[in-house]
Amino acid sequence: MNAEAAKPATPGPLAPGHVTPAGTRRKSRPRLDLRRLGRAALLGSSSARDRLPDAIGHVVEAHRAHHPDADLEPLRRAYLLAESSHRGQMRKSGEPYITHPLAVTLILAELGAETTTLTASLLHDTVEDTDVTLDQVGEEFGEEVRYLVDGVTKLEKVDYGAAAEPETFRKMLVATGNDVRVMSIKLADRLHNMRTLGVMRPAKQERIAKVTRDVLIPLAERLGVQALKTELEDLVFAILHPEEYETTRELILRNAAREDDPLADVADDVRKVLREADIPAEVLIRPRHFVSVHRVSRKRGPLRGADFGRLLVLVNEDADCYAVLGELHTCMTPVVSEFKDFIAVPKFNLYQSLHTAVAGDDGQVVEVLIRTHQMHKVAEAGVVALGNPYAAPPEEQSAGDGERVDPTRPGWLSRLLDWQQAAPDPDTFWSTLREDLAQDREITVFRPDGGTLGLPEGATCVDAAYAQYGEDAHACIGARVNGRLARLSTVLKDGDTVQLLMDQDAASAPSREWLDHATTPAARIAIQRWIAAHPSAEDGDARSLADDVEPTRPPGTETSQPSGADDTDPGRPGAAQVLVDRDGATVRLAGCCTPVPPDEVTGFVVRGGAVTVHRTECPAVERMRGDGRTEVGVRWGEGAECRVTLMAESFVRPHLLADLTEAMATEGAEIVSATVEPPDRQQVRHTYTVQLPDAAQLPALMRAMRNVAGVYDVSRAQPQTPDA
């Protein structure tokens, strides 16, 4: 990572009306010569006690750029101890070993890490590779540095082989959770190792690159350290996909050789717009890194000049961000679908910015990022840019059980630490970790009380329940999404409002089928733990709004409260009369296949002795037989009212909905709930849950619906597959 990529742009406040001229670039330090650093470490006047050793001059320069008043004495002493301890050790690349902790420390210094982190970084390999002890580190540099060095040392002591990976990363995350600076040092350490990986055998390069890709890069993303993440991505890309890397490299070089640059032209236009609006701003061109260019080329096909970078607009205040957005959308042609506001709703990794896009005169779309200088610093360096999170008085630095209080800990990390403690074994932890890290986008859903929940993309109401209530979510019986009742399997979207409905019964328990809908580790592990602790429990589909079941009781008994995932009155009767060969058993009609007379049906005993009635062709029947559920005989009683879900397929035409509902009312059907999907290619699907006074009327009702002009098919709701 060169200095320009690593060091966030954090200039001082801009004068009103100031806009950085086109083509202006920040001066950056060249890539360091590690061999020269090694010679300085071995031959320089490091014994002088009154001045800093020459070898850490670059570190000091980068550090003072972010912390001009920092006390540099700890760095001097840490370097002297590290250099003397590693003296005589060499890296496989041929440089003196001291060049490695120096390079790692420089990476962190350029990101803006505070002095304590840099001190620990210089010493991060001493306890593992030399005779220096943790006690010595603590006596010389204090408990804070000792803690960080110990955390990094623990990560390095475990082999990265496949068999050791689960426990390795469990320890890694525990260390990260107690102090995010441990992971910051680890990421910088991995980045420097990846830069010098060429001296390794190809097989070892590939193994290290895969671990970096699968775990460390996602963790860098979640910690918000984009400067490290992007270079790690490019280094891994070059090792694991050399041909595609070379192709991408040629594309970038070919674009750089072009005389015309649409990004520069649009940048000039943006500067002019902001200058006329008297908004102080700095407009920069941000070239995409290799992996980003590769992704864009796969998504868009042949690339145009504007696809190789984005514009970055830096301003002084939050309000200026929205002022810039307003000017751009007023004076230029905006691509409204590309707008995202990560300032009002920051991303899970502390990232804040406005994203938009404008169309140039030649039709090329240019993406624009708008943020303050402080937002940019955090966007590049993440938690590293937030300084020492433990700079409070000593009595405020820890919580119960010795766990340190970290105000910068992202919400995802707190959740991850919770479920890693609940994971029954390292393998379960590892598999769920891999799944969690594979989710590279997070959504935000809102609670009715105004609070928010951060969930991975693709999360369901089951995940929301466990994110909000922990193991108390076992009592969840349903949810309302944007005011409408929904199945617990409903996939949530960014910005949804979710109200979770909880059962007051202390014996409430999760359904085994919830595992099919849970995507987050917290939800899956909690459900699995309950199932493991209750091996004899017949949980199945006995109780849940998510299962959309319709309860009834044997003749002569009071009808129990139904559970439905539609907008129904929960106390309304209406289940068909079912006779069961089991005295006193509560009977429930399964929502997955909505059986009504004269369907052929069968029943299974579930938790609490209840009997669930399914159509015989329902996919759940074979699964429940395979699970060893007790099957009992059931049959329909005398004619009775029933509730059933019907789907109508039709062409779009005026007044269709009115004509269809009128036909249903004429047949005596009471519409309990209705859903009409958005039209697709002039076709539309209607879903109705209706109440009939007699199940025998169902065929006539379906015929009447089919006779409505424009309706070309009416069918019963199909039995759901076990994965539905």
UniProtKB/TrEMBL annotation:
SUPFAM superfamilies xref list: ACT-like, HD-domain/PDEase-like, Nucleotidyltransferase, TGS-like
Pfam families xref list: ACT_4, HD_4, RelA_SpoT, TGS
Region (Disordered): 1-29, 536-576
PROSITE patterns: ACT, HD, TGS
Domain HD: 97-194
GO biological process, one term: guanosine tetraphosphate metabolic process
GO cellular component, one term: plasma membrane
InterPro entries: ACT-like_dom_sf (IPR045865), ACT_dom (IPR002912), Beta-grasp_dom_sf (IPR012675), HD/PDEase_dom (IPR003607), HD_domain (IPR006674), NT_sf (IPR043519), RelA_SpoT (IPR007685), TGS (IPR004095)
Domain ACT: 645-719
Domain annotation TGS: ranges: 441-502
Bias type Basic and acidic residues, positions: 536-546
Family the entry assigns: Belongs to the RelA/SpoT family.
Name of the featured protein: Bifunctional (P)ppGpp synthetase/guanosine-3',5'-bis(Diphosphate) 3'-pyrophosphohydrolase
Lineage, opening ranks: Bacteria, Bacillati, Actinomycetota, Actinomycetes, Catenulisporales
